[in-house]
Records
---
Amino acid sequence: MPKRKIIKIDQAKCNGCSLCIPNCPEGAIQMIDGKARLISGLFCDGLGACLGKCPQGAITIEEREAKGYDERKVMGNIIKQGTNVIKAHLTHLKEHHQMEYLHQAAGFLKEKGLPNPLLESSCKGHAPTSHSGCPGSKIMDFRKKEPAASVGKGEGRQISAESQLRQWPVQLMLVPAYAPYLNNADMLIAADCVPFAYASFHEGLLKGKILLVGCPKLDDLDAYRQKLTQMLNVNNIKSITYAHMEVPCCFGLVGIIQEAVTASGKGTPFKEVIISISGERLQ
């Protein structure tokens, strides 16, 4: 059973005030015998919406072996509680950058013929689309698009290099694990400074690969570990290349990727590429 973050309720500290209950729209906590109890790990997303509502400090987050969180089961509970609870749950996922769960929740609402209360507020001013979310995170696969016409050198003209980007979105936390372009793909994970420093990024690194971008210094590495493990579990990833800068903070994602590969049990080939601050490829 995999390890993940999940709440822990100290029964000795819990006084049965039940203030945590309305702050867990997922339905993971219930009052039983005068105490707050975690009734199912399937319903706990481990994001801690209930933590600050406990006056006794009885609720904490720990990492332990637990069954995977099930967003569809959670949504089955939430839709019974009305639009405001649905919106609170979706907002909670969005604020914690849990885009995979947010996509699943939006898909569930669409299946049930229910409106998504975040669409109007998060995408105000955009025309409606068939995508159940903001256009900025709409899954797009354009690997088969026609190459851009090159522009030759001449008076007042420059050579126009063709973009090798073949999918959208590219931010690691925005790409769903089930995105169709991930299966049978060679994956390039790039620290977000690399494309600015390395002039040959498109031809030298990105060509023929699916791109995931993130910042090992500023982003949540534990969330990266979970997302990458899930991607490897549900897809056949042919290879992973991690391109990062030579600065120490960029190396933090190396171990995370290796852990995800190990956890998947698939032995996906992994290669590391290091770019210097001056834009040279070191390794």
---
Amino acid sequence: MESQTKQIQMFLDQGKTLTSMEALTKFKCFRLASRINDLKKAGYPVDKRMVDIDSGKKVAQYFKVIL
């Protein structure tokens, strides 16, 4: 089985975005921010934006930066 970090990278490589709730359901990842930090340390071009969710709260949505 591939690591959560690799799974997340492959998901973002497809041009998709990811929030912590999505990461939990798709990859059983409870600490998305830590996995994103791992990707950044490895030089992967990822960034985030804050988006509103149905409850009215804002959450981080991560995406691959196209250079």
